[in-house]
Amino acid sequence: MKHHFPFFTANPSVTYLDSAATTQRLQHVIDSNQRFLATDNATVHRAAYRKATLATETYESSRAVLAKLINANSDEIVFTSGATESINMIADGLSTSNLVGTKILVCASEHHANLLPWQKLAKRLDLSIEVLPLSENGTFSPTTFEQWVKLIDEDVCLIACAHVSNVLGNIYPIKQLCLLANKYNAITVIDGTQAVAHLSVDMTDLNCDFYVFSGHKMYGPTGVGILFGKYHQLATMQVSKLGGEMVSNVSYQTFTAQPPPLKFEAGTPNITGVIGIKHAALFLMENFHQIISHERRLSQYLLQQLRKVNDLRILGNIGLSSVLNESAQINTNENIEAPEGNIGIVSFIHESADNHSLAEQLWHQDISLRYGHHCAMPLLSSLALGACLRISLGAYNDKTDVDRFISALLHSLGDIKNNDKKSLLLKNEM
Ligand code: PMP
Predict the structure, then answer these.
(1) Scanning 230, 367, 405, 428, which has its CA 20 to 30 A from the CA of 349?
(2) Which residue's CA lies nearest to atom 8 of ligand 1?
(3) pLDDT by residue (tens digit) across 42-56?
(4) End-to-end distance of the chain based on CA atoms, in angstroms?
(5) CATH 3.40.640.10 fits 27-279, yes or no
(6) What positions belong to coiled-coil segments (predicted)?
(7) Is the backbone of residue 126 left (phi > 0), alpha (psi -120 to 50) or beta?
(8) CA of 267: how far to CAs of 76, 225, 243, in Å?
C-alpha cells in the first residue's frame, strides 16, 4: 500500500509508526486538492456561475460519500475542522431540553478532546461527571462492562466514549453501550477518531446519537472532520458558530437558521479539506477488506514480536495473554464479550529502562513513534504512569516496518543496558 503514499518514496529510511497521531496522505487526496486549487477554485453554496456550481456539487458529493462510509444520511453529516471541534460543538449545543438527567459518564481512557468539553458542559448545566472504569492495566472485559452497566441509569443524561482508545487500542462495545444508553434516554457521543480508518463503522447498526472523526487520521487532510448526528438531534441542537450561509433569513434583530447540516457550517468552509476527505473515504471503501485483514495480521505479528522482549509491559486489552472473543454479543443479563482484535495501536513501557531515553534512542534510528501521555492524562495517572511509548499502524505499514522497529528496540535496550553498566562501573570506581 506504500505506493499510494508519496511520503514513503520521499523518506525511505523513516519507519512511520505514528498513524494514531496523524496518518500519511494519500496521493489521491493530494492530487484532488492540487486540482481544485489550481483549476477549479471557487466558493460553495453562494453563487450560480459555472465554477461555483461545480465547487458546490463537488463539496456536496463529499457529504454523500462520507455518509455512505458510515451508513448515514447526507443531512446527518456536518463538516467541521476535526473531531475536537465536533465534540465542542455538541457540548456547546446541548441544553436541558436535550438532556434528561444529572450525570455525564465518560470512559476512563478518553482523549482530552472527549473529556474537557464535557467538563465545560457539566459546569454550564450543573451536571456531575462519572467515569466508566477499566480494569487493571487498562483492560476492558465482560466484568468491566458489568461495572459499566451498574452505572447506567435514569440519572445519566450523556455517555461519551471512544470507539477505539487512542492509547490502549481497546475496541469498546459501542453497539451494546448505545443499547443501554437508549434504554435510559441518555445521549451517546462516540469518538470514532481512531476507528473509522480501521473498523467497519455503521451508524444504523451502532445507533448512537453522535459520532465524530477527523480527516487526518484516515489518510485525508488536516483541518477537516465529521460530526455525525441523528437528524432529530441536529435539528434540536443549538448552533455555537454564527455567520454567513448558516441562515435562511436574517433581520437586524434576529435570524432563522437553515436546517441541518448547513446550520452548523457558518462561514466559508475548508473546501479543499472536504474534497480531500472524500477521496480518503473512497480509498477506504474501495480497499476496506484488504486493509482490515492486513492490519489485523500485522498487529498480531507486532504483538508476537513485542511479547518476546523481556520486561515489556503492554497496556490495555492487547496486553492480555489470551485474546478475548471477538463476537461482542449482548445476552439477556447484558453481559458482554470484549471485542477482540487490535487495529494496530500498542502502548507499552519497559519496566526497567528509562522509557524517555528509550524513545529518544528509537527516534535517533528514524523510528517515528510517540512517547508521552497521548492527551489522556487521567488514564495515564490511573495506570500510575506519566507517559508511555505508543506504536500505531496504518494501512501502509508492513512486516519490514515491524522488524525494523523490533531490531531498533532491542538495539536501544542493549545500548541502555551497556550505558547503565558503564555508569555503574564509573560510580564504583569513584
Ligand atoms: N479523539 C481521539 C481518540 C484522538 O486520538 C484524537 C487525536 N489524537 C482526537 C480525538 C482529536 O482529534 P483532532 O486533533 O483531529 O481534532
Answers:
(1) 428
(2) 21
(3) 999 988 999 999 999
(4) 55
(5) yes
(6) none
(7) left
(8) 19, 16, 6
Q: Identify the residue whose C-alpha is closest to ligand 1 atom 6.
A: 193
Q: 302 phi and psi, to 5 degrees?
A: -60, -45
What is the homologous superfamily of the domain 2-25+288-429 according to CATH? Answer: Aspartate Aminotransferase, domain 1 (3.90.1150.10)
Q: What is the pTM of this model?
A: 0.94
Alpha-carbon distance of 45 to 305, in angstroms, equals 52
Cα(83) to centroid of ligand 1, in Å? 6
User: Among 89, 166, 218, 226, which residue has the most ligand 1 atoms within 8 Å of its CB, making it the best to mutate?
Assistant: 166
Atom of ligand 1 nearest to the CA of 164: 3
DSSP-derived letter for residue 164 is B
Determine the atom of ligand 1 nearest the C-alpha atom of 222.
Answer: 15
CA-based radius of gyration for the chain: 23
Q: What is the pLDDT of residue 317?
A: 85
Q: Which of 161, 178, 208, 375 is labelled catalytic?
A: 375
pLDDT digits (tens, 9 = 90+) for 258-316: 999 999 999 999 999 999 999 999 999 999 999 999 999 999 999 999 999 999 999 99
Q: Which amino acid is at 355?
A: N
Indicate if 375 belongs to the active site. Answer: yes
The Cα 371–Cα 355 span in angstroms is 8
State the span(s) of the chain assigned CATH 3.40.640.10: 27-279
Atom number in ligand 1 closest to CA 84: 16
Amino acid at 135: S
- One-character DSSP codes across 96-134: TTT--SSEEEEETT--GGGTHHHHHHHHHHT-EEEEE--
Question: Which residue has the CA at smallest separation from atom 14 of ligand 1?
Answer: 84
Residues with CB under 6 A from ligand 1: 20, 82-84, 111, 113-114, 162, 166, 191, 193-194, 214, 216, 375
- The ipTM value here is 0.99
- For residue 253, report the distance from its CA to the centre of ligand 1, in Å: 38
| Atom in ligand 1 nearest the alpha carbon of residue 191 | 1
Residue 113 alpha carbon to ligand 1 centre in Å: 6
What is residue 428's predicted lDDT score, i.e. its pLDDT? 57
DSSP 229-252: E-HHHHHHSPPS---TTSEEEE-S
Q: Could you tell me if 289 and 324 are in contact, meaning their C-beta atoms sit under 8 angstroms apart?
A: no
Where are the CATH 3.90.1150.10 domain residues in the chain?
2-25+288-429
